[in-house]
Amino acid sequence: MDRIRIRGGNRLNGEIHISGAKNAALPLMIASLLTDDTLTLRNVPRLADVTLLMRILGNHGVDISVDGKRAGTNGIQGDTMHLTARTIVDTTAPYEMVSRMRASFWVLGPLLARCGEARVSLPGGCAIGTRPVDMHIQALQALGAEVEIDKGYIVAKAKKGLKGDRITFEKVSVGATHAALMSAVLAHGETVIENAAREPEIGDVADCLIKMGALIEGLGTSTLRVQGRDRLHGATHEVLPDRIETGTYAMAVAMAGGDVHLLGARADLVGNVINVMEQAGVSMSPTNQGLRVSRNGAGLKPVSVTTEPYPGFPTDLQAQFMALMTRAEGTATITETIFENRFMHVQELARLGADIRLRGDSAEVHGVTRLRGAEVMATDLRASVSLVIAGLVAEGDTMVHRVYHLDRGFERLEKKLGACGAEIERLAS
Ligand code: UD1
User: Fold this and answer.
1) Same structural domain, 232 and 264
2) Are residues 246 and 231 in the same domain?
3) How far is the CA of 338 from the centre of ligand 1 (A)?
4) Distance 103 CA to ligand 1 centre (A)
5) pLDDT confidence of 340, banded at 50, 70, 90?
6) 83 vs 122, which has greater pLDDT?
7) Among 238, 267, 289, where does a domain finish?
8) 64 with 136, same domain?
9) Catalytic site residues?
């Protein structure tokens, strides 16, 4: 298994190209199941999760090719993906694939909507909390599907097609909103989705579905109204920039100090993060090409945050922000309200000398003046990058093990940071 070694102490200066958003690219790829025409996606990030989903979709019969030029590289690996689901050859998504990435479970709705049946293994993915799928099932049942669990698989049937209805979610779920939306676009009649997630990636998928012929109103609000269509057609869509990658590199610059231009980043997607970072003493200003982040000289002020559904502070930046606060001049409280058990990075940050005390769903982070490099273990996708951020200022070498978690969600991380002056290298096993 690959490891990443970081020698702390260098400031970051230069440019980083922000990739397309993983959390939009995955459901957009899945949306290709809804039409027998070609869906072309641009700005697709090259990530392990994307490669895995290509294989999963391939199993269902989707023909996929990749070309185009990638921003900030020599263009060897393309960022444009063409997906054609002319014929669905298999409506089963097997355990050995779905257990490796939770989002692949999201094929359930589109397969059911298009083929009238689907058999999808219950998911796995990041080990953060229990992450049930009851709301996904609730959405499909509301649209008339018969759903049962058989030997670890969800088996859903709607032989006469799905029928539009009202779906009211008890709490906000990104995945369940995707499931409801991607099923409703091919259902008969009108579907109203209440308490829908408002994450920008949902809006991006909805935009693409509209280009494919779907009728959706209420974008950006928590009530989505969908008029079902008999069929959708092909389209071309550009994946929006990754706001989590944007926030992550902003926090890396804030930690190491320096001045970095995040090319392609969109300030409107990270408003809450900018607000929090400015309170911490970090400058983040929009430019014509993206966002410029700098921290020169001044120390970091402690800022307490609570994770919330969008537009609140994202849970996917909680670990990175905690790493940053380990060096603040005072105490910050970080409260996690979305996932239970999403504090596995705490004990690893402690190995680097951080002073963090857990109290239920909150972590009290007492800033320390120095961190020291150590061997640490990546436990999930976002936690692993928090260790890299801490490693940027830790004295000596930090060795991050199990970096396959990082590769699931960050494109060429060590190259992007290395180009800005970080001393970071990947050691192949
Ligand atoms: C998505 C994101 C993930 C992000 C999360 C929250 C992708 C590929 N993943 O994950 O990066 O951290 O949103 O912003 O976009 N829940 C239920 N029942 C359900 C579904 C969810 O109780 O049927 C709960 C979850 O356990 C969790 C909360 O709802 O406590 C939110 O989860 P959800 O928004 O569904 O997360 P994902 O879609 O899995």
Assistant:
1) no
2) no
3) 8
4) 9
5) confident
6) 83
7) 238
8) yes
9) 126
Residue among 396, 398, 395, 368 nearest 385 (CA): 398
pLDDT at position 77 is: 67
Structural domain count of the chain: 2
Same domain for 91 and 139, yes or no, is yes
**Among the atoms of ligand 1, which is closest to the Cα of residue 339?**
30
- Out of 238, 256, 283, a domain closes at 238
CA of 46 to the centre of ligand 1 (A): 22
CA-based radius of gyration for the chain: 21
Which ligand 1 atom minimizes the distance to the CA of 134?
A: 23
Whether residue 358 sits in one domain with residue 234: no
Pocket of ligand 1 (CB under 6 A): 23, 26, 102-103, 129, 131-136, 171, 173-176, 201, 315-316, 338-339
H-helix or E-strand spanning residue 79: none
CATH number where 102 lies: 3.65.10.10
| 3-state secondary structure at position 221 | coil
Query: Are 246 and 196 found together in one domain?
Result: no
What is the domain range of residue 199? 24-238
Pocket test for ligand 1, best of 173, 181, 318 (most atoms within 8 A of CB): 173
Non-local CB neighbours of 231 within 8 Å, separated by 6+ positions: 35, 36, 186, 213
Q: Is 360 exposed, middle or buried (0-12, 13-18, 19+ CB in 10 A)?
A: exposed
Q: How far is the CA of 175 from the centre of ligand 1 (A)?
A: 6
Digit-coded pLDDT (tens) for 46-60: 999 999 999 999 999
In ligand 1, the atom with minimum distance to the C-alpha of 178 is 38
> Of 115, 223, 207, which is closest to residue 215 (Cα–Cα)?
207
| Top mutation candidate among 108, 338, 341, 385 for ligand 1, by most atoms within 8 Å of CB | 338
Q: Are residues 162 and 178 in the same domain?
A: yes
Residue 76's pLDDT is 52
Model pLDDT for residues 204-253, shown as the tens digit of each residue? 999 999 999 999 999 999 999 999 999 999 999 999 999 999 999 999 99
